[in-house]
Design a protein that fits this description.
This protein is mainly beta. The protein contains 1 helix and 8 strands; from the N terminus they run H-E-E-E-E-E-E-E-E. The chain has a single domain, classed as Porin (Beta Barrel), CATH 2.40.160.20.
Length: about 180
């Protein structure tokens, strides 16, 4: 034996500690993603026309996180009018301005949202003729949601989009995971 080699001994001790601790290692709390949520929205859409046309809408989305503060949110929205209706299908990305804490959403989470997809209009005329059109759509805006129970959030959003409109709505979310 050639005697003590402190650098080699330190290397073996470091490896032994790392191997012993490895089973207990897990991502830091800040790296965990919140649970997915089913969201239901209702509100008002203000269309720019020969003045402002106001219509109600209902919609739903599923928000799932791809990063701790970035979520994907496919959404379907139905807008009803007197002799017409609109259907908007968008894929949205949300960015939470505050991250989760220990894998759980914060009590209050402000967020930004941007998305794109399709906007379909169906219009009925008195002579029973029906006109439909489909065009590209986008929305962008933000809002805030608050945790009101173990699995429920409520919130509000404001967005601008094309077909040119401003959207104001409330949203209720139900977390799908633990």
């Amino acid at each position: 034996m050639t005697g003590w080699n402190p650098p080699r001994l330190m290397m073996f001790v470091s490896i032994a500690i790392a191997l012993g601790a490895a089973p207990g290692v897990r991502p830091a709390a800040g790296q965990e993603r919140p649970a997915s949520a089913a969201e239901f929205a209702a509100g008002t859409v203000f269309f720019a026309d020969d003045g402002v046309v106001t219509e109600g809408f209902v919609g739903s989305a599923v928000r799932f996180y791809v990063l701790p503060r970035v979520g994907a949110r496919p959404e379907i929205v139905f807008i009803g009018g007197e002799n017409h209706s609109h259907l908007m299908l968008t894929g949205n990305v949300t960015f939470d301005f505050v991250g989760p804490l220990n894998g759980r959403p914060r009590r209050v989470t402000p967020f930004a949202v941007v998305g794109g997809g399709v906007f379909r209009t169906r219009e009925s005329f008195p002579d029973n003729e029906v006109f439909t059109s489909t065009e590209g759509a986008f929305t962008a805006g933000g809002g805030v949601r608050a945790l009101v129970g173990e699995r429920v959030t409520v919130g509000a959003e404001v967005r601008i989009g094309w077909e040119l409109h401003i959207r104001l709505n409330g949203v209720v979310g139900v977390h799908l995971g633990s």
